[in-house]
Amino acid sequence: MDMMSTQISKCCVTQRLAARLVVGLTAGLAAMLALAASQWSMQPKESKLTFVGEQAGAKFEGGFDKFTADIRFDPKDLAASRFDVKIDTASVNTQDGERDDTIKSADLFDVKRFANAHYVADKFTSKGGDKYSATGKLTLRNVTKDVPIDFTFENKDGGAWLKGTAKIKRLDFGVGQGEWKDTSTVGNDVQVRFALRLKGAS
Asked: DSSP strand E in the chain: where?
């Protein structure tokens, strides 16, 4: 009788463990599917990261030829969304070689010491329709500051477009040493623009 009771008890424990395993696997699979549904792959050839600055009272435009963007975004699950953007600062391109060399120099981007800029956003707010805002942190020249962005997210042509803007002050990040701290020569305000072509990650 005792042996039978022991066998029944072991059977019940085994069944409970099996049930917990099934529940755990199901929850894990659901989480993986949710993540996959909101993960996007940026298309480099169709995407742009640009900026507008001011030099000697005149506006000039530039951009970065090399950058990556790990985008996890779901309008129905903003809490789980995240942007992770890495920028090769040496790839700056303003269509002016002399100016580009100056921007890369130690007094501005100092690309030899700080090869990358990094932006991470994980707090998102819906503004209605396809408009959103996010709060993220930009690290540039080893200085990290909060930088908010405003953007639109539009599903289109079997993928999506993520387009937006941000405003930063270059001196907040130490971009401007020595004579380049003078904002009458190079303005302090910089507008950043981005247009990322996204496709669902396979």
From this structure: 39-42, 48-55, 58-64, 67-72, 82-88, 92-93, 116-128, 131-140, 143-156, 159-169, 189-200
The CATH architecture of the domain made up of 41-200 is Beta Barrel (2.40)
CB within 8 Å of 26: residues ≥ 6 apart: none
Cross-strand bridge partners of residue 82:
72
Q: What is the SS3 assignment for 21-34?
A: HHHHHHHHHHHHHH
**Domain boundaries in the chain?**
41-200
Phi, psi values for residue 100, rounded to 5°: -60, -40
Q: What is the pLDDT, as a whole number, of residue 201?
A: 76
Phi then psi dihedrals of residue 201, to 5 deg: -65, 135
Tens digit of each residue's pLDDT (9 = 90 or more) over 96-131 = 999 999 999 999 999 999 999 999 999 999 999 999
DSSP code, position 16: H
31 vs 131, more confident: 131
Distance of alpha carbon 135 from alpha carbon 67, whole angstroms: 20
**What is the rounded CA–CA span in Å between residue 16 and residue 157?**
48
